């Protein structure tokens, strides 16, 4: 229990079960055991405010006391616009982390909007009473913080599209016995000269499909360059901005490029963490303990955090061995792994990624340079 606990009998608890077509609003009123359920059209904020006001008026007429509202809904595809809308109207709102809510572990359990809404009411009531283990609440980013993530996330999708197109071109050519992909700079000349494994020219329809794939690839590459230019412009827009300063500091480390620095700053380091365990847990690279009876060991990582940041840290850990071989972290990895390969090496790189994340966090927050790190004077454009 915490010191700032709230008695559920002194507030009106609201849970909103969101869906594409309708919203189910469940309300727990003081002194009333059975929750009140009300359906409204999805996105109808006017009807939502009207219903919430009617709940307050009903309690006021019955008790003579004006009580505040505490709303909640699960984080999902609707984003955070509803949270900002409710907050702007003076309503306290909480965004629940869905996977943190305990559910019945039967193989087959009932699943309805009513049960979900009533479950959120119980969870929020326990949370308000001070039970912080009842569920986890999402830290809602500001609109500027949310918008700053758009650039590197769009770049990620464009790079994936680029790889899909290149793999498709390679696969089509491979079916004809051609193992070398034509260059984009001399595409027409290379395709005219290429021959299939049995000595034929490319069929007309296959040639047309390859030309369309080539045009899609060129457009995708242009979009990637455009997004990268926008990313660099945003990173240099305001030198006094804290996020821009962290990006610039990370780019000074050899092996950390503009994209890695932007992803780590916009996805992780924009938040405040109390300790290194919170940091590793947020990224999802903290080992899960298993203690029962005489057994006490760590299991594999949770993978419950930010998947984009986790993937970036694993990639950066591999690059760290190449670009920072003299650092203490690289030496620790070599001493720990030695000549071993395969699964042992992959497990060790995750542990190194966790150590590297903590070292970079201390670097951007407190200016503590990781031991043995090579700091460059000119920033790189991309790694």
Automatic annotation (TrEMBL):
Residues 76-173 form the Transposase IS110-like N-terminal domain. One of its GO terms (molecular function) is transposase activity. Residues 251-325 form the Transposase IS116/IS110/IS902 C-terminal domain. One of its GO terms (biological process) is DNA transposition. Pfam families: DEDD_Tnp_IS110, Transposase_20. This is Transposase.
